[in-house]
Amino acid sequence: MTTTPFRLTEAELELLPTEAEVEEYAERGWYLTRKLFSDEEVDALIAAADDFYAGHKDRSLPMRPPNLVYWEPSHGDVQRHNDYIHYESDAVARLLRKPVIGATAARLAQAAQIRVFQSTLIYKPPNPGEVTNLVPWHADRHYWQTCSSDRMLTAFIPFHDCTVQMGTITMIDGSHLWKEIPGDDSTRHFAQRDRNELEDLLHKTAEFNNAEVTVIPMVIPKGHMSFHHCKIFHGSGHNQGTVPRRAISFHLQDGDNQWRPYDKADGTRVVYNNDVLVRRTADGHPDYADPDFCPVIWQS
Question: Is residue 92 within 8 Å of 86, Cβ to Cβ?
């Protein structure tokens, strides 16, 4: 199947990362964009998220994956994570598929095609004492071991000015270039691991690489977003502001990415949530190019 190339306006072309910025992303593992969403588009995201929290869905997942993270009202005023928002909300999906987002990802990943891999709607309440508000250090690639690509990346898209006080996403500068500690069972999602264990893992990995731990908080104005490499250590702190910190974490894959088998040391095969939802390839494996769950958002 041939995918029709996407097009950008002259104004949108000016919003893309420059060659120097692409080189800096390769060195540092993160990138802060120009204003890719208008205020009206961000407000439309907020309205779509409010509708979702009020119970509106354009469709529901056909089954519940084994490690789905999915806030429900009965969970209370904790940090909310709702996976697959791009599948369940058409209004959100339309905005996330804006070509300039995919084109930015493609330039950073140096890929001809960008597809969705996953997405999570996030709501961090303004409660400094809420333990769920703290997201420990982790790297997305650790629990994407069923993926063949090391070029995957994530866009963090806040619905407002996102500051340190609000617990913005924070990077460990250049850590995507570090080698992993041998023997670490890193396939578990950060929510399934002890925070102290992950803090210790960060510092042990830095020591193993003879590297410094340099913390870089992403201060992101409304309409802008950050991108980060799949191997970079990142996390976020408590929301010490007066309003909720709201965002979408938009995980993206390059066109070469495909499913691969990955077994843990005990012989257990790793199953990512996509694996039970997407269609099958001709040889019976999960198809990470399934247009329903992993649509193309950029093709050059």
Answer: yes
Tell me how many helices (H) and strands (E) the chain has. Answer: 7, 11
Level-2 CATH architecture, domain 24-299: Sandwich (2.60)
What distance in Å separates the CA atoms of residue 204 and residue 28, rounded to the nearest whole number? 20
DSSP 245-258: EEEEEEEEEETT--
Per-domain residue ranges of the chain: 24-299
H or E segment and range at residue 113: strand 113-124
Digitized pLDDT (tens) for each residue of the chain, 300 residues in all: 445 678 999 999 999 999 999 999 999 999 999 999 999 999 999 999 999 999 999 999 999 999 999 999 999 999 999 999 999 999 999 999 999 999 999 999 999 999 999 999 999 999 888 888 888 999 999 889 999 999 999 999 999 999 999 999 999 999 999 998 875 555 555 555 566 777 888 999 999 999 999 999 999 999 999 999 999 999 999 999 999 999 999 999 999 999 999 998 888 999 999 999 999 999 999 999 999 999 999 999
Phi, psi of 234 (to 5 degrees): -155, 165
